[in-house]
Fold this protein.
Amino acid sequence: MVTDIAQDERSNAAPQKEGAAIDIVSVTQAFRSGGKDLPVLDEVSISAKPGEFVALVGPSGSGKSTLLRLLAGLDRPLFGEVYVDGEPVRKPNPRHALVFQDPTLLPWRTVRENVAIGPEALGRLRDSQDRIDAALALVNLTEFADAWPAQLSGGMAQRAALARALVNDPSVLLLDEPLGKLDALTRRVLQGELLSLWEQRRFTALLVTHDVSEALVLADRIVVFSPRPAQVRDIIAVNLERPRDQSSAGFIALRERILGLLDADAAASGTDALHYETDATE
Ligand SMILES: Nc1ncnc2c1ncn2[C@@H]1O[C@H](COP(=O)(O)OP(=O)(O)OP(=O)(O)O)[C@@H](O)[C@H]1O
Ligand SMILES: [Mg+2]
């Protein structure tokens, strides 16, 4: 029995080996807005295998964040169902972590105390100290564990937000433009770090981004949304070896293909699609 407890404590600190399967099945979502129904997602179906890295690109307002909120259990779809490892998602789960564009750190807590929020909420603060240390080390913030959020750069704050998500050893990591507000150089660095975190932890990742190059650097497959109400316009497999060479012919061809899809939609709806190429414009 004593051995069993010791075993449990060890596994508590050990990383999750495999991510969860995601199945989004015919999901339709609409909001009531100004007395009218606003259709947002139109029969969207997407699956991700355990440990797969899927990126989602699409026009602003098409429903990408709406879809992540459904996966995070923050909302329920009007029609269809969202499953993680075959179970319908009905409520938030600490192992299905969501990271936003803004790090949303609590300013009155140190970095370490921010990372501790998840274990604390689960009543597991005392036996999670190793886990918190490991999460801080994973994002290279050990030296800043006792710093206050106001003392961090934008990139460091976003690393702290990632550590806060990773401390619960997520089987699914939902990323809503997590690097969107960072300068181009910091974004490149964090893309590399995100990739290495995923390679170490093998969670299933669903990344929303406006940066097509970012999607191509990171993802196994890229889902392209149409304008709202979003339908899956295309799903593109990125069969390029990592780390990916952005100047390779294969990379450029895929980028052109995805930008072409987005541009065609933008032209049809009269919106500006240039912001999809943030790397090229900064
Ligand atoms: N709770 C809500 N109530 C009413 N309308 C909403 C709500 N949440 C989102 N919407 C609307 O749904 C549409 C899709 O929003 P969503 O935030 O999912 O888009 P997005 O693809 O993430 O856009 P962006 O790329 O700009 O972040 C928008 O028109 C938005 O106004
Ligand atoms: Mg959004």
